[in-house]
Amino acid sequence: MDLAVIIQVLDSSIRLSTPLLLACLAGLFSERAGIFDIGLEGKMLISAFASAAFAFTTGNVWIGLMAGIGASLALSAIHGLASITFRGNQLISGVALNFLASGLTVLIAQNWFKQGGRTPTIPEEQRFQDITLPFADALRDVPVFGPIYSDLISGHSALAYIAFLMVPLTWWVLFRTRFGLRLRAVGEAPDAVDTAGVSVIGLRFAAVGTCGVLCGIAGAYLATSLQAGFVKEMTAGRGYIALAALIFAKWRPWYALMACLLFGFLQAVALRFQNIRLGDFVIPVQLMEALPYILTVVILAGFVGKAIPPRAGGEPYVKER
Amino acid sequence: MDKMPAWADAVLVPLISVFLAAAISALVILSIGENPLNAFSIMVEGALSSSRGIGYTLYYATNFIFTGLAVAVAFHARMFNIGGEGQAMIGGLGVALVCLFIPWPHWSLALLGATVIAALFGAAWAYIPAFLQAKRGSHIVITTIMFNFIAFSLLNYVLVNMLKPQGSSDPATARFPEATHLPTFQSMFSTADNVMFRNAPANVTFFIALLACVAVYLLIWRTRLGYELRSFGQSETAAVYAGISPVKITIVAMLISGGLAGLMALNTTMGEAERLVLNATEGAGFIGIAVALMGRSHPVGILLAALLFGFLYQGGTELAFWTSIPTQLIIVIQALVILFTGALDNMVRMPLEKIFLNIRKGDA
After folding, report:
1. Which positions in chain B touch A247 (Cβ < 8 Å)?
2. What PANTHER family does its record include (chain B) (predicted)?
3. What residues make up the domain containing B71?
4. How many CB pairs under 8 A join A and B?
5. CA-CA to B89 of 20 to 30 Å: which in A199, A206, A228, B220?
6. Is A311 a domain residue?
7. What is the pLDDT of residues A56-105, one digit of tens each?
8. What 3-state DSSP class applies to A227?
């Protein structure tokens, strides 16, 4: 295996990690504020459809991105209404929203475009373009560093760079701002936040909204950057992998980056190599596909350090008991 | 004092929720330029007006009874088992192994053997998440979701690398031998000059589903175990104080839940396809969530909700055939039912409670 192949696999890992990372950070905001969200998958899916549909019809990919974020926010609003305002079951609400997105996207896509529940292919120039970083071409011939910089780090779409920049930003917001402190507090001890005169409901809606925006970007990345349009069920369980990554990372931003890169790498390897032969032993592709889920169960089981969720997670806040 | 009578909470709240879901579904149909009344009559026509349509409706309902009961038993112990899909897949694997590798003399014996194995396989797949929840505190919702994906990969591997007949490219087993084929409603109810349920997949498994309803009723409300299960679901601390072991109840409840989900495979794999295919469950594990919520986790409610969803499934298929409405409409309806009955139930309950309080004040 030479450097070129390694670079290719790593490059594809970054592409596959990007939507996971965005969704994972989205879940991080929501769950840190005490709102469980298994609807990441649905929000990404509906955003993927909306962004592809609007990018195709208007010819402007940024309008597509906005539409995607809008659609994702609409689902967030329902989730907020159900789990914050009406103190419903957050898990059930998430499940319902996943189905809602799965059904509505195909229903509307079929109604608008009549192509069997998909959008038409978006032409190259109407999608997010790959950005070539400065000096990428000039440095290509430098040994080792050249290919890494110009093929691996350079040449991704704007959304991918946004995703990776979101990691330090999330860390800064959560751990270095007043808003972040309150947001984390509301996920651990909402009554304390309430006693301090800060609105629990407001903070939780802010968190759920942030989650919606990030899932929206993730969906737009899938449909207008990674692929050229929306196809039925195109998120293919990425929302659940992101959820797995979030647990794997124990609800911390930098670890989320590592977990998403790892899971993206597993996907890339499974895509490229199918069955991997190690001497006499063959690792089947199905094992590679299942590995993120298996790893998450192992982490959840607490055999490799314990994953402890925010304390008030999943509990609706009732002002007076 | 309760804010409203028990019958209102048990009947009125779900009914209004379902009505809301239906109203929004009608709006969705309107917005894609079709007539909701027309759509509804096509669904009734396709699902209920012929014995063939009813046969399909009952076939789907059979699946949903099993998965609905599975979710409900876990609900009673206050656990949310999203893993019905995976448990049914593994149950199907058990059914396939039993049908392919044991030379059964008669279908009734084969059905008996397959029932035991399907339940055992489904329960086994639920055991690990249950164990992790009970002993390590890993959240059952997340682990069962993960186990759905793992089950799919495992089944895919076993089908492609072990059970697929040589020369076939389809990830599916060979056809089961003749002796394991279950009697369909057509063979049971047709007379010489009057063919009933022509080509419909409803089969003898439907009666096993009805038996399962009775069994779950007896278990939950007429046995000591059921009492322990419900008390654990109501209040864990009170249950512990009464000497009920949380570890035991968690694991037993999930084993029963997984076993019921596994039984679904009897209907799809042994009754209909007569071989194991990769996508045998077709999301029925998830519909069980909607069915259990709508049926308020009571076997009678679940039976009715499963029949309704069976109707929706068969009707939706007909709808896709005759109009431009794709079958995904059913997924939207399913989502709305789950949303309104499971997550937004307080939106319905709060105003109702106010109304009942006002009525009482009027009386006093």
Report:
1. 142
2. ABC TRANSPORTER, PERMEASE PROTEIN, GUANOSINE ABC TRANSPORTER PERMEASE PROTEIN NUPP
3. 60-314
4. 150
5. B220
6. no
7. 999 899 999 999 999 999 999 999 999 998 888 888 899 899 999 999 99
8. coil
